[in-house]
Every structure is written in structure tokens, then in C-alpha cells.
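Quick one:
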Amino acid sequence: MGICENRTVIITGAAGGLGRAYALAFGAEGANVVVNDIGTSLGGEGRDTSAADAVVAEIKAAGGKAIANYEDITDWDAAKRIVDAAIEAFGDLHVVVNNAGIVRDRMFVSATVEEWDATMHVHLRGHFCIARHAVNYWRAKQKDGRDPDARIINTSSGAGLQGSIAQAAYSTAKGGIASLTLVQAAELGRYGITANALAPSARTRMTEGAFAEKMKAVEEGFDVMDPANVAPTVVWLGSAQSAHVTGCVFELEGGKIMLEDGWREGPFVDQQARWEPAQVGEVVDKLIEARVPPRKVWGTA
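Output:
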């Protein structure tokens, strides 16, 4: 018996890459899987339902239970239909894995408002809509005296945690998702809901273009960038075993599981009086010298 036996999970963007790896892993651990994917291009254009169907067929061929869903997570009403479809098919809902996303790489000086809005729409609105409907369901379930034991698993990124050259919109959206996760964890625990986020590093169509050399598959030995390496932690976070873990961001790559430390209070000076503008520069220089050096923005020397 798997650790997610009879738990129902919705995975967005589940037709390829990390989402597909999550779907297969959840299915192997006994979960009922809703494979949500509208089949767009990397930039968010077009529609193709065949990839989601293929993942469902793969799960079923291995003895698992799954349905395909092609609703748009950024549409408020459609997002509710995804939640409703999970409950109708499997009788309950336990986990939402917000994985779907797009990227519009562009240096900030060349970025357009259309690209900015499209990126925010998919990542931030998409994360909001489906989780909000799921929370409505879980709150109602709790009021009926049933323990939801529910999970929200969001997807941030190294770009969101430290920034990435030519990805201002993507980095901003992913940073926002990390903050959203903290708020969800703080507010929703009373309803039996945990919220955690991932910053995964693996071979996907998004990373193959940006980091081609690093993402190459290996012919022998451990394939560090195989998306399947990330899936076990995601499945555990979706299980009943993770009920005590919330408000965390996990950076995952190969066999590495790293817990992000988040924003911490750093060095400070308090003179218990108002500063003169001319005094501030020397103080700030000393604080920068005393701080723990931050990680460099991706793509910088």
C-alpha cells in the first residue's frame, strides 16, 4: 500500500516534465490523480489534450487511477470545475499541486506589458483560482465535522528566490508564489490545510532551453536532472505523513532536499534617535559588510 492510498490529488500542468513525473509517482503510491493540462506551448499558446490523455493512460496501465482534465486554471469558473471533477470522480479531494506555468524570457529593458501580464496571469492567478476553490471545499468539509487533512503544494523557483537574468516577470511571479505560500500556511492551518512550496531543478522543456548543457541526460550513472528525482518529496508532502510540515519552501535537485531559510533579520544598528541623511551611508556600508552574503542572481558572474 502506498503512502497516498485513496488520496485524491489535482496536478496542474501534469502532461509533461515535472508535472508528469508527479502524476506518475502519485499514481504509483495509490493516489487518485487528476491530470490537468490544456496543452499549451512553453509561452502559453495553443491547445492540445493528447498529452494529458497519454499520462492518464500510463497511470492506468500501471494499475493506478486517474482522469484527464483540460480546464484553464486561470479562469475562475473553470478552476471550480477542476475541483468539482475531482470530487465527482473520486468522492473527495486532498491535494492540489500547482505546477502549471509559462515563461516569456526577456531582458527587462525589452520586456513588454503583454508578456508581463501573461506571466502573472498563469502563475499568480492560476495558483490562486484553483487553490481558492479547493479551500472552499475543505472549509465546508471541516464545518461538517470531517477532517480535511489537506495539502496545497505550490511551485516557486530558484529564479523566484534569488532572481534570474532575462526573467524579470518569471522571477517576480515565482517570488510572489513563495510569499503566497507563507500566507496560506499561516491562515489555513486552522482548517486542517498545509501549504508548502517547491523550487525544483530538473530537465523540462523550460530548463532545456535555458540551461541546455546542464540539463543533458546522462548515459550512465545517476541522472541528476531527471524530473522523477523531484517527485518523491512532492508525493510525501501530499501524504498524510506530512501534516506537521507547513510554510516551507523546498529546493529539490537530484538526490538533494534543501529547506530554504527565507528572509531573516540581519545585522542592524539602532541609535534610538533620528538619523541625519549624511550619516546613513557609513552605517549601511557596515551592515552590508556584516551580513551573510546573498546568493548571486542567476546568470550573473
